[in-house]
Amino acid sequence: MSILEQKRSAQEDIENLEKAIVKALFLKSQSPKYAVLADFMIKEFLEEIQSKSAKALKIYQDEDGFRKNEIQFLEGCREAEDATGNKSLDVWTNFYEKLNEIRDYHDRFTPYGTPAENHDDNWYFLHALDDRSKIPKFSGPEGNGRFVDLHNLYIDFINLKKLNKNNPRLRITLDYLTYLSTFDQFHTIPISCKDNQYKKYLENLLDYLKYFFNRTQPLLNISQLEDQHRRDFQARWESRSIKGWEKLPKKHELKTDPLFCLPCNKLFTNKNVYKAHKTGAKHRKAAENIAELIDRTDESEEIKHYQEVASLECFISRLRETLGDTVEDTMNNIRKKQTRTAEELAAQIYESDEEEEPFSLPVEELKKKSENKEKEESSSSEDERPAYNPLNLPIGYDGKPIPYWLYKLQGLNVEYKCEICGNYSYWGRRAFERHFQEWRHAYGMRCLRIPNTMHFREVTKIDEAITLHKKLIEDHKLDLFRADEEEEFEDSQGNVMSKKKFTDLKRQGLA
């Protein structure tokens, strides 16, 4: 294959891989159970894009000069003895030479009858997880990456000896749900309880969280979180700004601490334990060699142990913040299970056994799904064909014409025309009565400048509506009160008369 063809092929593959990423994101949005699967597919696509991009970049750099020579060859440059002197003719000569080379290559190395494989975006999408070793595996309580499973670590935590000695009711008061909400609150645990067994528990907890993180969030790099944690932790440890470790003495304050034993190079967290230690044989023997230890400047073994424990706690807290939504979903799922009866739990387990694992979907099943989708679309298109309706009957709720007897019973064969609506036809008495409050009739009345009130019910002619409107206006004028004509007065004898008559009589002195 020529250099230019390799470059074109790499760029085409990059474009198809980007389209495949879009398909994976669409798969992720369809259902939560496909979220982790889609992330692993996207990770494969990104790694393939990086390799293709590096290959295309190397061709663009053209360190060996092959790309430049091939471009010159396609422009018509030939050796002096083979050149015809006409560059436009040499272009076509070089083109057919390259075409014959490609045909000879495919004739020699392509099996007869083998169709050319087209690696488009659909091919990359279907073959993204052909390597089953890259598909993550989850336990039952983890729910395909939606929940965390800390049951074993919960048992290890409640069985810590020093912690149980400090809090005898720990096993009774701390249930699994409470442990999930407080397992990162290490500042509540006394420093005296953080021994080697506690450190081993933290290491197991961190290993699980890192393993779960790599299985559920493949697009994030946990090594970057570790590097950032190391940089931040050292400064916080030196300043004793880590929550729960503020009272631990610093390096230069260690020898002046009242609970630090210089001969034994050991820090005690309890005053009574320190007094009992000074009476022991081990302390007396170490005190004899005090001259050898007087100039020691390194930290004690206990301080180094506590520093390692604090580093583990800080990194676990950082991962807990990153996996916060997953832990919250786990707690909600446990609360939901606690509200169910035994029958409902058994039915849920039976249904979960019948469900297909989303991470074991082969290419053939994905193809079957696409084929089934095409069949459903074809069947739906057949169902959408118009039903046989020679009498032009109205369509019912089931998509079929209503019976003819119901058509006659409802009077749908009777036509009502409304001149105000623009001679629009209404079939059936119900539709005719309902149209007086619809937009078409209201618009027609507005054009006539007539209010669409109940007085104009059953009026469909424009002349009748105008005549009725004028009559209503005249009747309204008669009902109006006129102060000059309707005002009444009463004389001294109790006779009631109009204002004009009363005024005339009063001028004559008769009222």
Automatic annotation (TrEMBL):
PROSITE patterns: ZF_MATRIN, ZINC_FINGER_C2H2_1. Its main location: nucleus. Residues 349-389 are annotated as: Disordered. The keyword Kinase does not apply. Gene3D superfamilies: Classic Zinc Finger. One of its GO terms (molecular function) is zinc ion binding. It is found in: Nucleus. One of its GO terms (cellular component) is spliceosomal complex. This is Matrin-type domain-containing protein. The lineage of its organism: Eukaryota, Sar, Alveolata, Ciliophora, Postciliodesmatophora.
